[in-house]
Amino acid sequence: MFIQVQTTTDSEQAARRIAGELVKRRLAGCVQVLGPIQSIYRWRGRVESAQEWLCLIKSTRAAYERLEAALRELHSYETPEIIALPIEGGSDEYLEWLSESV
Questions:
Q1: What is the pLDDT of residue 38?
Q2: What is the mean pLDDT of the chain?
Q3: What is the model's pLDDT at position 28?
Q4: Which of the residues in the chain have pLDDT under 70?
Q5: Which sign, positive or negative, has the C-alpha torsion 4, 9, 12, 18?
Q6: How far apart are CA 39 and CA 102, in angstroms?
Q7: Rounded Cα gap, residues 7 and 72, in angstroms
Q8: In the chain, at which residue ranges do the beta strands (DSSP E only) sit?
Q9: Any idea which fold 2-101 has?
Q10: What is the reported pLDDT for 33?
Q11: Residues 6+ apart with CB under 8 A from 28
Q12: How many CA atoms lie within 13 A of 90 on its CB side?
C-alpha cells in the first residue's frame, strides 16, 4: 500500500522544486532531499560522473501512476531515475499520517 520512490536531480534547487510540487499536488506526504551525492553511471556508452541530489518520496501505490507522470513532467533529465520500492512496514501513526497526506 505504501511506497518510497527515488529520483535524482542535477541541483538542490531542482530537487526542492520537485519535492514541493509533489507534496503540493498530494502525490507525496513527504520528500526528503539529500545531497550532494556523487553518481557514477554509464550513459550512451561512456562512464560518466556527476554531482546530484537524491529525493526520497513517501507515497502510496494508488498514487504511483500520477506520481510518475508528475516526475516526468517536472524533471529535466531525458531519462530520470524513477524507482519505486515497497514499504513493508512502519509505525502505525506514521503510515496513518502518510495515507491522510496523499
A1: 98
A2: 97
A3: 98
A4: none
A5: negative
A6: 30
A7: 11
A8: 2-9, 30-43, 46-60, 83-86
A9: Alpha-Beta Plaits (3.30.70)
A10: 98
A11: 5, 19, 22, 57, 58, 59, 63, 67, 101, 102
A12: 15
Counting every residue written for the chain, the total comes to: 102
Check if the beta carbon of residue 35 is closer than 8 Å to that of residue 53. Answer: yes
Where do the structural domains in the chain lie, given as residue ranges? 2-101
Q: Residues near 31 by Cβ (< 8 Å), separated by ≥ 6?
A: 18, 19, 22, 23, 55, 56, 57, 58
End-to-end CA distance of the chain: 12
pTM of the model: 0.96
Residues 6+ apart with CB under 8 A from 96: none
Cell of 99: 495515507
